[in-house]
Each structure stands twice: as C-alpha cells, then as structure tokens.
Automatic annotation (TrEMBL), chains A, B:
Keywords: Flavoprotein, FMN, Monooxygenase, Oxidoreductase. Belongs to the NtaA/SnaA/DszA monooxygenase family. It comes from the Bacteria. The keyword Cell membrane does not apply. Gene3D superfamilies: Luciferase-like domain. Pfam families: Bac_luciferase. It comes from Pseudonocardia ailaonensis. InterPro entries: Diverse_substr_monoxygenases (IPR051260), Luciferase-like_dom (IPR011251), Luciferase-like_sf (IPR036661), NTA_MOA (IPR016215). Residues 26-383 form the Luciferase-like domain. This is LLM class flavin-dependent oxidoreductase.
Length: 447, 447
C-alpha cells in the first residue's frame, strides 16, 4: 500500500476559530474544557472519520489573564483514560512534562493507559516552557534549558527501559502447576544517570503495541535533537510548504545520523483548515478572524515565551524594549526569534505584538476541493506525513471530515478503514522488540 | 433517616478466597489484574448492589516473589478514570502515595477524576510502607517514619487548599460581555511548609461534591493521628467486635479533640465474608482456606513489614531471630507487634509466621442470615460504619449482594436506592465550603 496521510485531532487546542473566545461559540458549552462528554463526543467524531489519534495539550501555570481553556482543564492522562473506554481504534496522545514528573510515575501511568486502551497510548514529551510552573513544585527556579532537555531525554530512555520490564511471555499463568510468572523474564532496569536513578522492575506488562508511541514538538536545537533521538511522531507548525519540507528534512537527517530509520518518524504539523463554499468566502473568514483578535489579550499572550512577562508596563509605540536574556529559561527559541526580528526590523512593541500574535495566514483555506488539493500538494512534497487538526467547533470539523476527507479518500491519500487497532499499527510504526528478548535471541543458551 | 451501613468493594485486593492463588480460580481470567473490562464488570456489579464505592489498592515495589496481583497491575487513578465513565453513582477511591508524588500533581489528578466522575472521587492517602520503592524514585533511602507522615499530612492540606483555587461562582462565562472568569474568585495558595512550597492556583474548578473524599488506613500512632486529622473514611481491620469498637472510639475521640465532628468520619473495616448454605459448611471452607496456604509463600509475604526481609536465611525452628530495629522505616507498627509477640510468647520463627500469616479467623462466616446478623451486630455496637468487602471471585461476591444484602435491606440497615450521585452525598459527608467563600461571608464588604 502506498504512503497515506495520517490524521490527528487536537482537542481544545489553541489557534482554532475562536481561540481566546472559543467558549463564546454557540456550539461550545462554556465548561467544555472540563466536560468529559464533550471530549468523548469529539473523540468519537474523529474516530468515525478514521483519524489516527486525538491529542491533549497541557499547561500547569496560570494567572487570571491566561486564556480561558488554560484556566480550567483536565489533566491529560486522567482524561485520556476515560476516552480509552469510550473509543475503540483511535490513538490517545497526551502531553506530560519530564520537568515535574518522576520517570517511574510516567512509565506507570502511560503503561497503564496503554493496557487500558489495548495499545493506543502516545506520549507527547515536553520539558515545560512556563517557568512559573516551578513554584507549584517546591522549586524557586525552573530547571535551566540544558537540564530540562537532559531530563527529557533521560526520562524517555528510562520509561522505555521500564516498559520492557517483562518479556512478552513472562506470564505462563499455568493453573495446573501454580506457576504465574517466569522470574527469568522479569527484569530490573538498574538505571543510574545524570538526573535519575531507577531500579525497577515496573509492575506493568507490555501492551500489544509494545510501548507507548513517543511524540515531541520542540523547535529549538535541543528540541529538534530530542525529536530526532526519540520522537516517533513530531508535532510542529509549518507556515509554508517550503518551511515544512525543510523542517521534515532536517528532522529526518538528524535521525538518520543517529542510526534511526527515517521512515519510522511521522511529521504532523498542527493546522486549522478554513472551509467555505467559495475560496473567497473562506479567505475572508480567515482574515476576519486573524485581524479581529483583541489587542489586550494578544499583549497578555505575547508575554508567554518570556515567562508571562507583563508587557503592559511599556510604551506600545516606543521601540521594542531591551529585555536582556529574558525568556532564556522559558520558550527560549521563540523569545530569541521575536527579539531578533524586532531589532532587525526596528519595530515598536505594538508592531512586534501584531507581527507575532496575529496568527500567520493559514495555508489550508478555501473550498473543500481547494483544501484537499493543498493538503495533497504538501503531503506529496514531503512537508508533512500527517496533519494535526484543531477541532474546537464541531460543525467546522464536520466540514473537514465530511467534505474534504472524501476527496482525499477517493484519491487514495487517506485510509478508507483502520488498518489496526493500535496506534503503532495505524501510524505504520513497528512494534519495538523487548530489549531482553532481543538480547536472549542474540546470545542463544549454549547446547 | 436512621444511620445506614456503608459499603465498599475492594477490587483485586488481598485476603480474599484465593489470595496468592486467586488467579487460578476458574472465574478469574489470568490477566484480570490488568484487564479494564474485569474491573468495569466488578464496579458495575457493586453499583447494581448500591455500593458506596470501589477501592483500588496499590504498590510500586516488586520482586519475582511478590504476590501475582502485585506483579502486574494498573496505576489506580488511570484505572479509576476509565471506571468513572463506565459507572454512574458509585464512588471511586484510589491509593496514591504522598512519599513519591508532588502535591500539585496529586491535586490535579484527583481533581480531574472528581470532575470526570461528577463528584465521585476519593483518595486513600498512604505514606508507602515498602522501603524498596525509594530506589524507583532516585532515592538511596526511603523517607523515615516522621518525614513520611509529615509529608502525608502536609500533602493533604496542600491538595485541599489547591482544590479551593476557584470559588464555585468563579466562572460567569458571560457570552455577551466576553467575561469568562471573575479574577477575584481565583486564588493562589502560596503555601510554604516543611516539606513543600506550592504557589497555585490549580487550573481545575471544584466538582459538585466540593473536594475528593480523604481516606486513610494506617494503624500506627502516626497513622491514627493522620486519620483523625484529615480522614473522612478510615479503612482498617477489625478481628473482633471489641477491637472494632475500641478502634472506632479511639479515632473518633482523637478527631473530636482536634475540633472535628466525629459523625463526619466513616470507619470501614476490610472483610471477606464466607457464605454457605449452612454455618458449618462456611466455617469449614474458611478454615480450609486459612490453613491451606503454602508455607513458603507465607514466609516470603511475612517479610513485607520488615522491608521484604528474607526470612528464608534463618532456622525455622529456632527462636524468632533478633532483628534489632528492622522494619522501623517500613511497616513499623506491624513489625514491632510481631517482634513483641514472638518475644513475649517465646515463639519459633515457624510459629511466628504461622501466627501472623495465617489470616485471622474471619468474623463474617455462615449462612446469609448468620452473616447479616453478625454485620448488624457489629454495626449497631459501633465497631464499624461500613464494610469494605473484598470481591475477588464474582460468584462469591454475588452471594453477598444477592443473599445477605436483601436481609439487611429489609431491616433498614442498608439503602434501597442511592441517595445521591456523589461520593460525599452517599457517605453522608457534608460538602466543604470553599475557604475563600467562607472568608468572604465572614467579612462582608463594607457598605
């Protein structure tokens, strides 16, 4: 079968129609962000459209000015476990930080979700950009950039090791003899690393997909390196097809240099399609949304990469302020890029905010056929292996599933049935062999 | 309405028929301990019998000799979230340790479960007895006894504070004006304590039961003190009605001394009823089970309170060995009691193991009427407010729900319908007022 486009649905994400004002949309209950029925309905809507996965983002630091869906939200893994028993085939991907979770806990919780869902769990590994989170976890300061990414990589390796605590045939469960476990097939990890020491074994067996799928989204040098090292799915943003191709090439080159098979990495930019009966109508709606956002809210949101810095204190029409290294321990790459552009183009604060908070013109805008054409073009150019669709408003999402997808399906670009009931199976990723089984296979017992 | 007996169901607990050998029972799939369908069926069975709650125990340290259901099990909260959407009225109580979880994470996860379940979450607060757990969490040594209980109490207080981050009317969600949150009703915690500092606010609103219900099970001085300080449900073991009355009296006296209302504490011993068509038959089955356990497995299990000490190294028929203070950082109270009895009664190791691992003769043994009579007697004597029933084998549990409960229902001792769809509502516990709302009520805004 030829390569097919993969599809993710971002539940209660950002950047969709509404954004700060999503909750005011008549189709969306005001408390949707904490209503498990709302999530279950969206997940079933995505599953009916044969999506590969739903994706739950996260944040743990708020002020009264945070966007509404940040203020009150369910913890991603608790939420996904409820969705696991409300769905049958769709993958369940949640954001969990390695800065404020122990790897043993991460491995347990993700391993449990993987068993409960029958092999549909995925983990979006993040290092936490919001420095304010530290104060919720008994720390005066957030971990520095190097420590955050060091912990992230080490946490993933530890979890992968713990998920192999039991070989697949570790439980003979022989009722006649009373032999439940084969002790030779239970393994300690005995990890001692820079950030963690973890003995194991984990008290959870592997699911039928072997291990949860690792996702990653960072765009900094360190983020790309982490993605290339351990990411099996990469979430990103691609403003143009050229940028998408360059990003995908970079990640896959890095991965190959690390000895990985680049075909075992799925690149999935997050997008919001704008669909209308004519291209002009869709473009107008997209522009209206882009220009219609409230400046005060944009200004507050603009502070996020700088550790939610309060930009209300500066003169909006003076040159962009000198911020020193502000942002270095938050979303560093994004903060540095903003400072660079403001400096190079001699922008005022107001111009800088407008530049960076007015969402980039969306690439997938038009009639269903236009959007389908564009997606196919990007897919065939290698700018993406899949799309991560923001699906806040159900009827907007329905236009995508009911009008765009059938066109792509007819062209063979998207599936017409699930190939598998595991996330790995649908994403076309191999089931990793248990490391201990592999070692045993390589070193046969002498005759 | 007069006081009624509360009912909990311990899913995949210990001490039931089978225990080490539960998995060999023909009614129990070998992988039941990781099969979400098995748990969901048991939860629905308990809900059909109008139980107040299901309870999930936990452990995080295993060796190849650990009991089968310890070797491979789902993380309690991940499991309970899946059960939340598979049930409608029954409470969902999970064990989570305060030794190896941050209170902010605990508050988030429990708060999420409370919203997902519509106000049915409960938290069994434990300090972790198995010292070996430390090595899974980057620690050379387990926390000492004082630190463990200090962390436990402080964690509960922090979580309760975080759960009040939003007052109940904090979200006006006024579509016309665009006002989503009332910033005066979002509150930081700014906790700085001996073990934790936590700023808050938590990004989760309160459920309709206000806060998750706090359960506690420790029997040491420190454990009883913790239970009397914050426990709303107390899990315990009561070998005789007199011991049960004394324990309940002690907890309620301590709670009153701390300024609490003793009627807001529900004491629920864990029990396994043995039911047969005649009393003699039930007693014979219970004795057969009690005496039929494998000595080698008992010897391994006997080591647990001493930090899974290997007693296989001693002469079984020599006097009980001098262990010094072994067990002081594990299950200390239990370890000291064993040493004391062995010394006072001059027991050999074999005799001591037999004394403490042969399960105590079960108090609720006989025909359905005998068991119902006995339960009512204990309940009316004040030895218990409820029972926490181990329900490993479905048909054994069905005899309890279908034959014992109808007798108690006819006598008005147990409910004939759910009074509420929250855990607090069914347990008869009040909904705690938000502390900030209470402060506002006490200090009215000057006119």
């Amino acid at each position: 079968m030829s390569r097919q486009l993969k599809l993710g649905a971002v539940l209660m994400g950002v950047g969709g129609p509404g954004d700060h004002d999503t909750w005011r949309h008549p189709e969306i209950p005001g408390d949707a962000s904490v209503d498990i029925r709302w999530y279950a309905e969206r997940a079933r809507q995505a599953e009916a459209a044969l999506f590969d996965l739903v994706f739950i983002v996260d944040s743990q630091f708020i002020t009264p000015d945070s966007p509404p869906h940040y203020l009150n939200r369910l913890e991603p893994l608790t939420l996904l476990s409820a969705l696991a028993v409300s769905t049958t085939n769709i993958g369940l991907v949640g954001t969990l930080t390695t800065s404020y979770n122990s790897p043993f806990n991460l491995a347990r919780r993700l391993g449990s979700l993987d068993l409960i869902s029958g092999g549909r769990a995925g983990w979006n590994v993040v290092a936490t950009g919001d420095g304010g989170t530290a104060a919720n976890y008994s720390r005066d300061e957030h971990f520095d950039y190097a420590a955050r990414y060091g912990r992230a990589l080490e946490s993933v390796r530890v979890c992968q090791g713990l998920w192999d605590s039991y070989e697949d045939d570790a439980f003979p469960r022989d009722v006649a003899t009373g032999r439940f476990v084969d002790p030779d097939k239970q393994h300690r990890l005995d990890h001692v690393g820079e950030h963690f020491s973890v003995r194991g074994p984990l008290n959870i067996s592997r699911s039928k997909q072997g291990r949860p799928v690792i996702f990653q989204a960072g765009d900094s040098e360190e983020g790309r390196d982490l993605g290339a090292s351990v990411g099996e799915g990469i979430f990103t943003h691609a403003p143009t097809v050229e940028a998408g191709v360059a990003f995908a090439r970079d990640i896959k080159d890095r991965a190959r240099a690390k000895g990985r098979n680049e075909n075992e990495i799925v690149i999935m930019p997050g997008v919001t399609p704008w669909i209308a009966d004519t291209d002009a109508e869709a473009r107008a709606a997209e522009e209206h949304f882009r220009n219609g956002r409230d400046f005060a809210k944009n200004l507050a949101q603009f502070g996020r990469p700088f550790g939610w810095h309060d930009f209300g204190r500066y003169d909006l029409d003076a040159p962009f302020p000198d911020l020193g290294d502000l942002g270095k321990d938050s979303f560093r790459t994004q903060a540095e890029r903003i400072k660079q552009v403001a400096r190079d183009e001699r922008l005022t604060l107001r111009q800088t905010v407008q530049r960076f908070t007015a969402a980039t013109p969306a690439p997938f805008v038009g009639t269903p056929r236009t959007v389908a054409d564009r997606i196919q073009e990007w897919f065939e150019a290698g700018a993406l292996d899949g799309l991560n669709i923001h699906i806040t408003v159900p009827s907007v999402f329905a236009r995508f599933t009911d009008e765009v997808l059938p066109i792509l399906r007819e062209r063979g670009v998207v599936r017409d049935r699930y190939e598998a009931d595991t996330l790995r199976g649908n994403l076309g990723l191999p089931i990793p062999e248990n490391v201990h089984t592999a070692a045993r296979r390589r070193t046969p017992v002498p005759a």
